[in-house]
Amino acid sequence: EIVLTQSPGTLSLSPGERATLSCRASQSVSSSYLAWYQQKPGQAPRLLIYGASSRATGIPDRFSGSGSGTDFTLTISRLEPEDFAVYYCQQYGSSRYTFGQGTKLEIK
Amino acid sequence: EVQLVESGGGLVKPGGSLRLSCAASGFTFSSYSMNWVRQAPGKGLEWVSSISSSSSYIYYADSVKGRFTISRDNAKNSLYLQMNSLRAEDTAVYYCARGSSGGNAFDIWGQGTMVTVSS
Fold first, then answer.
1. Of B36, B54, B56, B61, whose Cβ has the fewest other Cβ atoms within 10 Å?
2. pLDDT of A3-14, one tens digit each?
Protein backbone atom coordinates (compact mmCIF):
# COMPACT_ATOMS: atom_id res chain seq x y z
CA GLU A 1 0.00 0.00 0.00
CA ILE A 2 1.24 3.45 -0.91
CA VAL A 3 1.60 5.72 2.11
CA LEU A 4 1.27 9.48 1.64
CA THR A 5 3.10 11.70 4.12
CA GLN A 6 2.13 15.36 4.25
CA SER A 7 4.29 18.12 5.65
CA PRO A 8 4.24 20.21 7.62
CA GLY A 9 1.58 18.97 9.99
CA THR A 10 0.62 22.56 10.77
CA LEU A 11 1.47 25.68 8.81
CA SER A 12 1.00 29.10 10.39
CA LEU A 13 0.82 31.96 7.92
CA SER A 14 -0.85 35.34 7.48
CA PRO A 15 -3.37 36.37 4.82
CA GLY A 16 -1.56 37.50 1.69
CA GLU A 17 1.34 35.12 2.22
CA ARG A 18 2.24 32.17 0.03
CA ALA A 19 1.58 28.64 1.28
CA THR A 20 3.48 25.57 0.13
CA LEU A 21 2.18 22.17 1.22
CA SER A 22 4.04 18.94 0.54
CA CYS A 23 2.81 15.39 -0.11
CA ARG A 24 5.40 12.62 -0.36
CA ALA A 25 4.54 9.08 -1.47
CA SER A 26 6.25 5.90 -0.26
CA GLN A 27 6.50 4.79 -3.89
CA SER A 28 5.91 6.36 -7.27
CA VAL A 29 2.39 7.61 -7.94
CA SER A 30 0.87 8.25 -11.33
CA SER A 31 0.37 11.98 -11.65
CA SER A 32 -3.03 11.25 -13.14
CA TYR A 33 -4.16 9.88 -9.80
CA LEU A 34 -2.93 12.52 -7.34
CA ALA A 35 -5.55 14.88 -5.92
CA TRP A 36 -5.81 17.57 -3.25
CA TYR A 37 -8.80 18.41 -1.05
CA GLN A 38 -9.69 21.21 1.33
CA GLN A 39 -11.78 20.59 4.44
CA LYS A 40 -13.16 23.22 6.78
CA PRO A 41 -14.52 22.39 10.26
CA GLY A 42 -17.90 20.69 10.13
CA GLN A 43 -17.86 20.46 6.35
CA ALA A 44 -17.26 17.76 3.79
CA PRO A 45 -13.99 17.83 1.86
CA ARG A 46 -13.88 19.79 -1.40
CA LEU A 47 -11.86 18.76 -4.43
CA LEU A 48 -9.25 21.37 -5.33
CA ILE A 49 -6.78 19.70 -7.67
CA TYR A 50 -6.88 16.46 -9.68
CA GLY A 51 -4.30 14.90 -11.94
CA ALA A 52 -1.64 16.58 -9.79
CA SER A 53 -2.06 19.98 -11.46
CA SER A 54 -5.59 20.48 -12.84
CA ARG A 55 -7.91 22.75 -10.90
CA ALA A 56 -11.40 21.45 -10.21
CA THR A 57 -14.42 23.42 -11.33
CA GLY A 58 -14.77 26.73 -9.55
CA ILE A 59 -11.41 26.64 -7.80
CA PRO A 60 -9.60 30.00 -7.82
CA ASP A 61 -6.36 30.23 -9.74
CA ARG A 62 -4.40 31.08 -6.59
CA PHE A 63 -4.47 27.30 -5.98
CA SER A 64 -1.97 25.30 -8.02
CA GLY A 65 -0.60 21.78 -7.91
CA SER A 66 2.67 20.38 -9.15
CA GLY A 67 4.97 17.42 -8.85
CA SER A 68 5.53 13.91 -10.11
CA GLY A 69 6.77 10.52 -8.98
CA THR A 70 6.89 10.65 -5.20
CA ASP A 71 6.86 14.40 -4.51
CA PHE A 72 3.84 16.62 -4.97
CA THR A 73 3.10 20.19 -3.90
CA LEU A 74 0.00 22.30 -3.39
CA THR A 75 0.69 26.02 -3.56
CA ILE A 76 -1.65 28.82 -2.57
CA SER A 77 -0.17 31.96 -4.05
CA ARG A 78 -1.80 34.59 -1.83
CA LEU A 79 -3.76 33.38 1.16
CA GLU A 80 -7.30 34.60 1.61
CA PRO A 81 -9.07 34.34 5.01
CA GLU A 82 -11.27 31.53 3.68
CA ASP A 83 -8.23 29.40 2.77
CA PHE A 84 -7.41 28.50 6.36
CA ALA A 85 -8.44 24.87 6.62
CA VAL A 86 -7.07 21.33 6.53
CA TYR A 87 -5.67 20.05 3.25
CA TYR A 88 -5.37 16.41 2.22
CA CYS A 89 -3.61 14.74 -0.68
CA GLN A 90 -4.98 11.51 -2.12
CA GLN A 91 -3.69 8.90 -4.53
CA TYR A 92 -5.19 5.99 -6.42
CA GLY A 93 -3.30 2.84 -7.28
CA SER A 94 -3.68 -0.96 -7.19
CA SER A 95 -7.46 -0.71 -6.82
CA ARG A 96 -7.33 1.39 -3.68
CA TYR A 97 -7.19 5.00 -2.61
CA THR A 98 -5.11 6.43 0.21
CA PHE A 99 -5.11 9.86 1.84
CA GLY A 100 -2.33 11.73 3.51
CA GLN A 101 -2.77 12.60 7.18
CA GLY A 102 -3.48 16.25 6.37
CA THR A 103 -1.86 19.65 6.79
CA LYS A 104 -3.63 22.21 8.94
CA LEU A 105 -3.22 25.73 7.58
CA GLU A 106 -3.83 28.17 10.41
CA ILE A 107 -3.81 31.93 10.73
CA LYS A 108 -0.65 33.31 12.28
CA GLU B 1 -28.09 21.10 -8.37
CA VAL B 2 -25.70 18.19 -8.06
CA GLN B 3 -26.22 16.68 -4.64
CA LEU B 4 -25.48 13.64 -2.49
CA VAL B 5 -27.40 13.07 0.72
CA GLU B 6 -26.40 10.33 3.16
CA SER B 7 -28.68 8.75 5.72
CA GLY B 8 -28.84 5.75 8.01
CA GLY B 9 -26.22 6.63 10.58
CA GLY B 10 -26.76 6.23 14.31
CA LEU B 11 -25.70 4.48 17.48
CA VAL B 12 -25.10 0.73 17.30
CA LYS B 13 -23.56 -1.80 19.68
CA PRO B 14 -20.31 -3.59 18.87
CA GLY B 15 -21.03 -6.56 16.66
CA GLY B 16 -24.16 -4.93 15.30
CA SER B 17 -25.13 -3.91 11.78
CA LEU B 18 -26.14 -0.74 10.02
CA ARG B 19 -27.02 0.16 6.45
CA LEU B 20 -26.08 3.56 5.07
CA SER B 21 -27.75 5.10 2.04
CA CYS B 22 -26.70 7.90 -0.27
CA ALA B 23 -29.30 9.55 -2.50
CA ALA B 24 -27.95 11.23 -5.62
CA SER B 25 -29.60 13.98 -7.63
CA GLY B 26 -28.74 16.50 -10.34
CA PHE B 27 -26.57 14.21 -12.44
CA THR B 28 -26.72 10.91 -14.33
CA PHE B 29 -25.95 8.61 -11.41
CA SER B 30 -25.53 5.52 -13.57
CA SER B 31 -22.57 7.09 -15.39
CA TYR B 32 -20.32 7.54 -12.38
CA SER B 33 -18.35 5.39 -9.98
CA MET B 34 -19.19 6.01 -6.35
CA ASN B 35 -17.26 5.80 -3.12
CA TRP B 36 -17.50 5.77 0.65
CA VAL B 37 -14.96 7.66 2.75
CA ARG B 38 -14.98 7.92 6.53
CA GLN B 39 -13.49 10.24 9.11
CA ALA B 40 -13.13 9.26 12.74
CA PRO B 41 -13.66 12.10 15.24
CA GLY B 42 -10.72 14.49 15.08
CA LYS B 43 -8.88 12.31 12.56
CA GLY B 44 -8.12 12.33 8.85
CA LEU B 45 -9.90 10.87 5.86
CA GLU B 46 -9.95 7.12 5.22
CA TRP B 47 -11.17 5.56 1.98
CA VAL B 48 -13.61 2.71 2.67
CA SER B 49 -14.96 1.33 -0.60
CA SER B 50 -15.60 2.03 -4.29
CA ILE B 51 -18.04 0.70 -6.86
CA SER B 52 -17.97 1.22 -10.60
CA SER B 53 -20.91 2.67 -12.52
CA SER B 54 -22.37 -0.74 -13.43
CA SER B 55 -21.25 -2.50 -10.23
CA SER B 56 -18.75 -4.55 -12.22
CA TYR B 57 -15.83 -3.48 -10.07
CA ILE B 58 -15.92 -3.26 -6.30
CA TYR B 59 -13.02 -2.50 -3.97
CA TYR B 60 -12.62 -2.34 -0.21
CA ALA B 61 -10.08 -1.10 2.26
CA ASP B 62 -8.44 -3.92 4.18
CA SER B 63 -9.92 -2.53 7.41
CA VAL B 64 -13.49 -3.30 6.28
CA LYS B 65 -13.09 -6.19 3.85
CA GLY B 66 -15.37 -9.08 4.74
CA ARG B 67 -17.53 -6.93 7.01
CA PHE B 68 -18.83 -4.14 4.76
CA THR B 69 -20.65 -4.46 1.43
CA ILE B 70 -21.06 -1.64 -1.06
CA SER B 71 -23.90 -1.70 -3.58
CA ARG B 72 -25.91 0.63 -5.77
CA ASP B 73 -29.30 0.83 -7.43
CA ASN B 74 -29.02 2.94 -10.56
CA ALA B 75 -32.79 2.91 -11.05
CA LYS B 76 -33.16 4.57 -7.65
CA ASN B 77 -30.07 6.81 -7.95
CA SER B 78 -28.85 5.37 -4.68
CA LEU B 79 -25.64 4.06 -3.15
CA TYR B 80 -25.52 1.81 -0.10
CA LEU B 81 -23.06 0.55 2.48
CA GLN B 82 -24.06 -2.49 4.52
CA MET B 83 -21.92 -2.59 7.63
CA ASN B 84 -21.79 -5.79 9.70
CA SER B 85 -19.73 -6.88 12.70
CA LEU B 86 -19.21 -3.27 13.65
CA ARG B 87 -16.33 -2.32 15.93
CA ALA B 88 -15.59 0.72 18.04
CA GLU B 89 -12.95 1.75 15.51
CA ASP B 90 -15.66 2.03 12.83
CA THR B 91 -17.00 5.09 14.64
CA ALA B 92 -16.80 7.92 12.14
CA VAL B 93 -18.61 10.29 9.85
CA TYR B 94 -19.27 8.40 6.62
CA TYR B 95 -19.27 10.38 3.39
CA CYS B 96 -20.40 9.23 0.00
CA ALA B 97 -18.47 10.77 -2.86
CA ARG B 98 -18.78 10.72 -6.63
CA GLY B 99 -15.85 9.56 -8.71
CA SER B 100 -14.80 12.12 -11.27
CA SER B 101 -15.11 11.33 -14.97
CA GLY B 102 -11.60 9.95 -15.12
CA GLY B 103 -12.07 8.10 -11.86
CA ASN B 104 -9.04 9.79 -10.47
CA ALA B 105 -10.61 11.93 -7.76
CA PHE B 106 -13.79 12.46 -5.78
CA ASP B 107 -15.47 15.56 -7.14
CA ILE B 108 -18.79 15.69 -5.27
CA TRP B 109 -19.27 14.85 -1.59
CA GLY B 110 -22.29 14.46 0.63
CA GLN B 111 -22.55 16.11 4.02
CA GLY B 112 -21.87 12.86 5.83
CA THR B 113 -23.71 10.67 8.34
CA MET B 114 -22.37 9.82 11.79
CA VAL B 115 -21.96 6.21 12.87
CA THR B 116 -21.20 5.55 16.53
CA VAL B 117 -20.31 2.05 17.68
CA SER B 118 -20.54 1.84 21.45
CA SER B 119 -22.04 -0.34 24.15
1. B56
2. 999 999 999 999
Low-confidence ranges of chain B (pLDDT < 50): none
Q: Considering only CB atoms, which chain A residues are within 8 Å of B95?
A: 44-45
Measured CA to CA, the distance from residue B119 to residue B116 in angstroms comes to 10
pLDDT of residue B104: 84
Nearest CA in chain B to A95: B59
Task: Tell me the residue ranges of DSSP E strands in A1-108.
Answer: 4-7, 10-13, 19-29, 34-39, 46-50, 54-55, 63-76, 86-93, 96-99, 103-107
What is the identity of the amino acid at A32? S
CB contact under 8 A, A92 and B35: no
Give residue-wise pLDDT tens across range B22-46.
999 999 999 999 999 999 999 999 9
Under an 8 A CB cutoff, do B104 and A92 touch?
Answer: yes
CA distance to partner chain B, nearest, from residue A52 (Å) = 10
| Residue in chain A lying closest to B111 (CA) | A44
Classify strands A10-13 and A103-107 as parallel, antiparallel or unpaired: parallel
**Among all residues of chain A, which has the CA nearest to that of B41?**
A42
